Fold:
Amino acid sequence: MYYISVACNYDPIATLYDVACKFPYADGNCGEVVEGCVYSTALNYDASATEDSGNCVFTGCADSEAFNFNLLASLEDSSCTYQVCPDFNGDGSVQAQDLLDFLIAWGTFYE
Structure:
């Protein structure tokens, strides 16, 4: 009963269109569920997957203390960067003034 030749349930002898055509996904899959990693940037990307299995592997900085922490990273790639000296005065850069401000404040008691 289906006459659209690209439909998964195409019937070549049908003469009427009954709006029940089932079309394939972009990858040509006709509706069967294929679990796998559906994110193309993951190391274990599966182009045939139609449903995410939740086991995608992403590389990146997995240390939450680092500046470039990647929440999605499940495989550490040694790319983490850390601030060695703090921006003590909050001006956006670490300079000698930060050290001087720190030393002035060292030992000062605040109420």
